[in-house]
Each structure stands twice: as structure tokens, then as C-alpha cells.
Amino acid sequence: MKKCEIHQLYNLEETIAADIFKDVTYPWEVLPKIKDFIVELGNTLDTEIYEKRGENIWVAKSAKVAETAFLNGPLIIDEGAEVRHCAFIRGNAIVGKNCVVGNSTELKNVILFNSVQVPHYNYVGDSILGHKSHMGAGSITSNVKSDKTLVVVKDGQEEIKTGLKKFGAMLGDYVEVGCNSVLNPGTVIGSHTNVYPLSMVRGVVADHSIYKNRNEVAQKSE
């Protein structure tokens, strides 16, 4: 399933977490490793640039964090990021450079590449969001199947068993997700793809696409 491989989805120069992707093929393989990786990386960060704000919480001095935001570690907030009023970061999160984590947005076990925006009422769990990807207001990643079985990534007749019970969505670079959309467990969206508002997305969506529903997916003309 080539379109789901890391190098097809992400520019690894746009994350402080590039090393976590070494020696793996698919991005969801790193989900169980995020916690330990943050602790290891955090202890190597330059104290001139980052300050430690609690147990395993590192925040860049240039980042803006609202007093009402809740920060739980392990957590790294990189340079220039903005964490707004009442954001809820539950832990195991890397917030990249110049990211926006908005009001009432909840993050858990995630990597946000640089310049990601999750600015309004988003839930992002057990997911990886690529460089300059954006989730519209109210859009969420659903990270556990209703029957609690392990997540399988599906692309037509192809399947990959992930062995994971919790797996939200892998968004490639420059993905735009419309307002109030739901990304079902095991969703993988290729780079430069746009998702209509109010969409219910599952499975693999090709890059440079416009997605309305499973039966209405158009390739971008550019």
C-alpha cells in the first residue's frame, strides 16, 4: 500500500519528531512510541529555547500558551506555537512550530507537524497531522471502533492489519478537512487533499483529491 508510506505523506524536515519515523514504513507504527520518544527528546532540548514547565513538559519560550489551557505530559510545544483558551492537551503530544491548538481542542497521543491548525473544537487522538494540514471547526478523529476490534487500514481490496485498538487518522501534508467532519478509525488521507464539510471519511483517500463521500472523490486538476 505505497500511498500510505511515510515518505508519500510527510516531509520529515517539518517536524522536531523526524527521528521517530526511522526504521518504520507506515506512520501509525510510531503511535505506541510517542510517549517514550517525547521524554527522550525533551531531555536533550536546548534550555535557551525551551523551558520545562512540569514533569516531562517542555514549552518553547516563543510559544504562546493561554493561562486557561491544560497541559499534561509528556508534551513538547515547539517554537512559535499558539495554544489557546481552554485547550486540553492530555499528554503524549508533540505540537510543532507555529501550530495553532484552539479553544476547547483536545489532543492525545499525537504528532502535529509544523504549522498545523486545529483551531476550534477539535478532538485529535492517536493521530499524525502533516505539515500545514488544517481541521475545520468541529472536525474530529474517531480513534476507537464501536465494536472495539483492532483497526485495519483499507484501500479497496487491500488491507493492512495494524494491531492497534486506538488509531485515529493519518493526515498528509497540506490536507484540508472541512467543518464537522468525522475521520473514522484507520483513516489515511494523502497530501494536498480537501475533504468537504460534514463528511464521514474512512479508509485511504488518495493525494491531490477532493473528497465528498466514498462514492464522490475527484482528482484535482492541477
Features:
11-stranded mixed β-sheet; mainly beta; 5-stranded mixed β-sheet
Describe this structure in words.
Strand 1 and strand 2 (57-60) form a beta hairpin. The protein is 6% helix and 37% strand. It has helices at residues 6-9, 34-42, and strands at residues 50-54, 57-60, 64-65, 70-71, 75-77, 82-83, 88-89, 93-95, 100-103, 106-112, 117-120, 123-129, 134-135, 140-141, 152-155, 158-161, 169-171, 176-177, 182-183, 187-189, 194-195, 200-201, 204-205, 209-213, 216-219. The relative contact order is 0.14. By secondary structure, the protein is mainly beta. The protein is globular. The strands form five sheets. Strands 1, 2, 4, 5, 7, 8, 10, 12, 17, 20 and 23 form an eleven-stranded mixed beta sheet that branches. It has two helices and 25 strands.
Low-pLDDT segments: none
Q: Output the radius of gyration.
A: 16 Å
| Element pattern in H and E | HHEEEEEEEEEEEEEEEEEEEEEEEEE
Biggest sheet layout: 11 strands, mixed
Whole-Å distance between the termini? Answer: 24 Å
**Portion of residues in helices?**
under 10%
